[in-house]
Amino acid sequence: MTSSLQADPQRVGEVLYKTLRDRIISGELRPGTRLSVPALAEEFRVSRSPVRDAVIRLVQENLAAETMNRGAEVARISRAELVSLYEAREVLEGAVARLATEKYDAALRRSLLALLTEHRTVAEQGDFARHLELDAAFHREIRQAAKSPVLARMLDGVQSRVLVAMRSTSLTGGMVQAVHDHQAIFEAIGSGDPEAAELAARAHIHRLKELLSAAD
Amino acid sequence: MTSSLQADPQRVGEVLYKTLRDRIISGELRPGTRLSVPALAEEFRVSRSPVRDAVIRLVQENLAAETMNRGAEVARISRAELVSLYEAREVLEGAVARLATEKYDAALRRSLLALLTEHRTVAEQGDFARHLELDAAFHREIRQAAKSPVLARMLDGVQSRVLVAMRSTSLTGGMVQAVHDHQAIFEAIGSGDPEAAELAARAHIHRLKELLSAAD
DNA sequence: TCGACACTATCTGCATGCAGTGTTGAACGC
DNA sequence: GCGTTCAACACTGCATGCAGATAGTGTCGA
Q1: Set of chain B residues whose Cβ sits within 8 Å of the Cβ of A9
Q2: Which of A50, A81, A209, B33 is a Cys-bridge partner for A86, taking CB atoms 3.0 to 4.6 Å apart?
Q3: DSSP-based three-state secondary structure for A2
Q4: What is the domain range of residue B39?
């Protein structure tokens, strides 16, 4: 071992992939931005190979799009595709809510309750940035509790692309309403009724999708 | 233009990716098979670069798994993950059935009916290989009709990995029962009731999942 | 006979070379 | 002023070089 306590990856390509992914999701790299392999290689002071690897992975994940002999650019996600993403998200969130209910325990109850409590305060205070974090955290908690790696991975992919799309389409969606929906999901999960939990989660996402279609 | 009439890809890496993907899905490359980049490069008479690109894409798609400094091998899909795949597939097939119902037209009716008719004959005759094809075709027709690229892509990924998993776990599942389920889905879609279509599709996949859990 | 160790072969992962191609912009004609 | 031509540039995509790491093999000692 050299020095630090890092466990797994430390392949340059892996680090680059995660870095670029973060920059895309955070909006630092906006949709349409060219992903020039030589330029990125120079920026990160590495050769072109690991950069190319990272870009290929981003393309495969639909976070970037490539044209023949023109390389890749950060994906531009259309309104139509955003709706399609929400169609997927609706049923996937429903599924994880159902599974989480079947695996419900005190630890899950505590963490969801903590998130919900803070979220309510934050929403009333109008802290939008923190609202987004708590919103994401709430859903993340549920999908981790569902213990379905397949569904979790899909939701991750959907969520990433939704965030990218949001860079051009700000869907605020109402913080108070979000808290209200989350409360309903929490109660359904807590009641031990998988069916109710699924319906509550679906209704939550469905409402967001409708907002999306309405807003032009 | 050189000679042939092929339109888009013509990147070596793209062709390799599709070829390897097909071989994995078809079972020609069995789970656990090492994907040695130099060996594949020699087999296909190309350099290691496009092979590496293809392997990276397979890994990103979870059709291959890699270990640090040991490269990739064809994914081994556990029983637990197969169940997880079916949990995802259940809700995804439900979603596309719902959407297909909303977009139902005569063309869809014709193609589904044709598939269903042949499927019934084939099932009675006990032609298992053809049964698998028709089964897949039926679901493919519905998810194309749904016109949701996001859901379609997810289902493709799920289906690929299910096929890989099936190489070690033969789940026959009853051809006649499959036809019966498909008939119910067809009728629900045709009736124009999205809710019913979703439920029918989900019930179909759910039944397969139960079979999976039961069979050891 | 059996285990430890060193050695070899092979592969991964990063770096780099290079031909073909798309893009840009400037010179030129009109 | 405006459109066209063409040449320089930049980048993609494939090929290849190479250091480090890992697995497999054989040898030696007990």
Answers
A1: 68
A2: A209
A3: coil
A4: 12-74
From A57, A87, A149, residue closest to B56, measured CB to CB: A57
Domains in chain A: how many in total?
2
Neighbours of A97 (CB within 10 A): 28
Whether the CB of A71 is less than 7 Å away from nucleic strand D comes out as yes
Provide the β-strand partners of residue B72.
Answer: B35, B66
Q: Are residues B155 and B177 in the same domain?
A: yes
pLDDT in tens, B175-196: 888 899 999 999 999 999 999 9
Q: Is B179:B123 a contact under the CB 8 Å cutoff?
A: yes
Contacts of A92 in chain B (CB under 8 A): 88, 91-92
Token reading at A212:
């999306």
Residue pLDDT, tens place only, A151-184: 999 999 999 999 999 876 656 667 888 899 999 9
**CA distance readout (Å), A103 to A1, B60, B202, B210, B214:** 39, 29, 21, 18, 20
Looking at A74, A90, A107, the residue that finishes a domain is A74
CA distance B95 to chain A (A): 7
Give which of B114, B216, B138, B132 is closest to B174, Cα–Cα. Answer: B132
Q: Residue B3 pLDDT more than 50?
A: no
Query: How far apart, in whole angstroms, are the C-alpha atoms of residue B36 and residue B47?
Result: 13
* Amino acid A56 CA to nucleotide C20 C1' distance, rounded Å: 21
Instruction: Give the C-alpha separation, B72 to B67, whole Å.
Output: 6
Contacts of B11 in chain A (CB under 8 A): 68
